[in-house]
Amino acid sequence: MVGELTESNGEPNRLESLKRYSILAYGAIGTMADVGLMVLGSLLVGLSVAVLLGGFGIVDVLVEELTTGEMLISAIVLAVVGLFCLGVASEGPLGRGRRLVGFKLWEVGIGRTLAVFACGFVALLLYDVLGGLLEDVPTPLYKGVEGFRAVGVSGMTVMPLLGVPLSLGARAVPDDYAWLRQADIPLMFVVWAVSAMLILV
């Protein structure tokens, strides 16, 4: 009788734990995927602007001479893909204002670290696939493909070591500085974007 009671009590606890960590996994992956898409979208849109400026001779950013058609097509493709990434991010959990609440700080840290590592790995896989398919495209477009590599490498290295810890530090500030807790996502975006740009350049 006692064994049956213990077993019946343990089953709901396991289900509750499974539900709790499923919510954590969904929230962490959704958040880091949205931040990664924002970083990638920003890189591609910025590269599109740089291509236009370089094509018109305002700045010197191109490594090869492009015809006007190649320049415009490259800029449009980069801008469209970048804006698509930003649009997808705006429709995700982060864009809808959903945040991880009700979890301990270490749980959020582990969840975000694993999630950003996974997102970086996916970005590198996409880079391998796209890089093989788009070898003969104009240089600006291939540079855009390399944006996937930059996002992936920084997501697997810099973010677990710097971005996620900084976001946890923002979440852990005392109540007197509670407004700083809203900076945890922007901090991750800044770290990921800056590190990705440095890798891309």
Task: Describe this structure in a few short sentences.
The protein is mainly alpha-helical and 201 residues long. 78% of the residues lie in helices and 0% in strands. It is elongated and about 65 Å long.
Could you list some keywords that capture this structure?
201 residues; disordered N terminus; mainly alpha
* Whole-number tally of structural domains: 1
Helix content: over 70%
Summarize the main sheet: none
The pLDDT mean sits at 85
Rounded to the nearest angstrom, the radius of gyration is 21 Å
Order of helices and strands: HHHHHH
Structural class of the secondary structure composition?
A: mainly alpha
Number of strands: 0
Strand content: under 5%
Separate helix tally: 6
Shape: elongated
Low-confidence stretches: 1-7
Separation of termini? 68 Å
Descriptive notes:
The protein is mainly alpha-helical and 201 residues long. It has one domain (2-200). It contains 6 helices and no strands. It has helices spanning 2-55, 68-91, 105-133, 139-156, 158-171, 184-200. It is elongated. Mean pLDDT is 85; it is low at 1-7.
